[in-house]
Amino acid sequence: MKHNLQFDFIADKQKNTLTIRREFLAGRQLVWDCYTQSELLDQWFAPKPFTTKTKSMDFSEGGHWHYAMVDPSGTEYWGYTEYIKIEPIDYYTTLDAFSNAEGEINQDLPRAEWLVNFTDKDENALVETIVTYKSLSDLETVIQMGMEQGMMATLEKLDELLLTLNK
Amino acid sequence: MRRDIFQAIADPTRRAIIALIAIQAMTPNAIAEHFDTTRQAISKHLKVLTECQLLKQEHQGREIYYQLEIDKMKEIDKWLEQFRKIWETRFSQLDDLLSTLKKQK
Fold first, then answer.
1. What is the DSSP annotation of A121-142?
2. Which of A90, A91, A86, A82 is nearest to A111 (CA)?
3. Cross-referenced InterPro entries, in alphabetical order (chain A) (predicted)?
């Protein structure tokens, strides 16, 4: 199924942010539910071929989502997202982290602030995700980790690339 | 030494050189005139760009003109595409879920 839905993907080197905007063929409430209920998140959050499984979730300010992305061989990559501010059904902010299966946060790996904004676009919902890292090297580290092997040589040059793209 | 397109764009002067000759082929002297740095520094950048296979030389009489292998720039695009893909697959899964949920209602 192919739609002409808005999709922007912007990297900003100055602010160390990734901005991702995407329109969805559904109302705001339904899209909000997909982002904020674990049984729904589990069905889409990990990009193929990964799957998502939730260990625990408490969607409230000060609450958390403890989940794993599981690759086809069964390896689990644990994440721990803390919910900071929630304003249904307009936006929420989180602080994400890498963790282990026990939910202990890995302090050596970068954390990022997420601001997820929900707005109406006619009958559709527009979701804007702004991910802010503390530094550019944090952003690089995370992107590096999320990538398949074989790309490492070029990853060192991410900051310069982002700069070029901003021009 | 192995060089790639990302090394080519790693330096601001080289990016400026790329922008310059993207418009038209130029001689090394003409390129150097656009910069405050020494002619040698520019030559070194041109050497790197050539090693990255982003530049090709064309002889016209006694002059050497540098021009851009613009196709090479596509590698950057292809590389960035992978990051976009992660979000794209994630969102297309959400599309599927949304359409399933809407049908259930």
1. ETTEEEEEEEEEESSHHHHHHH
2. A82
3. ASHA1/2-like_C (IPR013538), START-like_dom_sf (IPR023393)
In chain B, domain spans: 5-104
Residues from chain A that touch B93, judged by Cβ atoms under 8 A, are 43-44, 47-48
For residue B82, give the chain A residue with the closest CA.
A147
Tell me the pTM: 0.68
Task: Tell me which of 3.30.310.50, 1.10.10.10, 3.50.50.60, 3.40.50.300 is the CATH number of domain B5-104.
Answer: 1.10.10.10
What would the two tokens of residue B45 be? Answer: 């950048």
Identify the residue among B90, B99, B103 best suited for mutation to test binding to A, counting A beta carbons within 10 A and taking the highest: B90
A139 touches chain B (CB under 8 A): no
Distance from CA of A9 to the nearest CA of B (A): 7
ipTM for this model: 0.75
| Correct CATH for A7-165 of 3.20.20.30, 3.40.1000.10, 3.30.530.20, 2.10.25.10 | 3.30.530.20
* Best to test chain B binding among A45, A157, A165 (most B CBs inside 10 Å): A157
Contacts 24+ apart (CB under 8 A), A154-157: A154/B4, A154/B6, A154/B79, A156/B6, A157/B6, A157/B7, A157/B9, A157/B10
Chain B residues with CB under 8 Å of A44 CB are 90, 93-94, 96-97
**What pLDDT, in 10s, does the model give residues A20-69?**
888 988 889 999 999 999 999 998 888 777 889 999 999 999 999 999 98
Size of interface A-B (CB pairs under 8 A): 82
